[in-house]
TrEMBL record:
DNA mismatch repair protein Mlh1 C-terminal domain span: 2-216
InterPro entries membership: Mlh1_C
Name of the protein in its database record: DNA mismatch repair protein Mlh1 C-terminal domain-containing protein
Naturally occurring in which organism (per UniProt): Cryoendolithus antarcticus
Length: 216
């Protein structure tokens, strides 16, 4: 959550919800014209999908009953067969050898969490409507927007471990990006929708407070 001011009003907003809507809208307006995040070392697509499957089994234990080798093979084949379309419209470049070479760069100065990459790629199988062109673009943009939403980090602890130091460093970086990159981008380009009201709470109205103090 984050606090923002609009005129004399102060709001508490779900920046994750706002981010998802912003990146979806950005995907629509910049469709087919994204920048590129190019990996210095190509990433093995099949291995990424395998990691995504392992993550999914932790998140959803009931999914352990699935034949994950078959699921991964199906998603891999689906992505490889659509690699030209993925590159042309989404700057997701996959080589003939099944290596992931690039991902779309949607906002300069902001790098999405690569820890979310395996799950993102895995979801492109069952959560994208590959049978309808319009539906395909819409559902894939939703998945891309979800990938770009800042990751949730654990609350600070007093352990002082090296892992905690790394998380604290990432948390500070994320706070900087949210304040100095994402929120200015929201202000410049986000078109507010009714759905965003679910993640918005007015917590102060200075005009109303002035009237209260005037009576004191």
């Amino acid at each position: 959550m984050a606090a923002i001011q609009s005129g004399v009003r102060l709001y508490l907003v779900d920046y994750g919800l706002i981010s998802a809507e912003y990146f979806y809208q950005l995907g629509l307006t910049d469709f087919g014209n994204f920048g590129a995040i190019r990996f210095s070392t190509p990433l093995d697509l099949r291995q990424l999908l395998k990691i995504g499957g392992e993550q999914m089994q932790v998140i959803e234990p009931e999914s352990a009953e699935l034949d994950w080798e078959e699921v991964i093979a199906n998603v891999y084949d689906q992505l490889l067969s659509r690699k030209d379309m993925l590159m042309e419209y989404f700057t997701i470049e996959i080589s003939e050898q099944g290596e992931l070479l690039t991902m779309p760069l949607m906002v300069k100065g902001y790098m999405p969490s690569m820890a979310k990459l395996p799950n993102f790629l895995l979801r492109l199988g069952p959560h994208v409507d590959w049978n309808d062109e319009k539906g395909c673009f819409a559902t894939l943009l939703r998945e891309l927007a979800s990938f770009y939403v800042p990751e949730a980090l654990p609350a600070p602890s007093a352990s002082g471990s090296s892992d905690e130091e790394a998380v604290a460093k990432r948390r500070d970086e994320l706070h900087r990006v949210i304040e100095n990159v994402l929120f200015p981008a929201f202000k410049a380009r986000l078109v507010a929708t009714q759905g965003l009201l679910r993640g918005t709470l007015e917590i102060a109205n200075l005009k109303g407070l002035y009237r209260v103090f005037e009576r004191c």
